[in-house]
UniProtKB/TrEMBL annotation:
Residues 33-143 form the DUF4440 domain. Pfam families: DUF4440. It comes from Maribacter arcticus. It comes from the Bacteria. SUPFAM superfamilies: NTF2-like (SSF54427). This is DUF4440 domain-containing protein.
Amino acid sequence: MGLIKIIIILTLVLVSNMLKGQDVENEALYNTIMKLDKTYFTAYNECDMKTQSEFYDEDIEFYHDMGGLATDKAELLKSIEKNICGKVTRTLIEESVEVHPIKDFGAIQIGMHKFYNNQEPNAISKPTKFIVIWKKTNSKWLMSRVISLH
């Protein structure tokens, strides 16, 4: 076998292995973010304010198409407790979720979800978009920026 053929084969193997490694990293990140999403929204649906509080960065920016911009973590949590607890539940449309790394910061999660108004059981819930920018500090992940559309 010629030297050029060997170099080409080795290059293809190396690139293939690098891509597989990248896929594993992205899969691990995806699984991490999906687990965080599930934990947070279980707390959201069950009105566990302590757990929800632990997920928000102190420097939160929460953009809601109907509620506007919230930048005060304590006020955001009060609003969730007043307007959501026992009234609204959220379900994730798992197949819609994309997770992308943000170098030296964390990750971005983009997807679709549905909210159900428990006080209007016959109301039809339509899928809506959301974006969460997750910030990784040491080994803890926090929601830094949220865009929620309804």
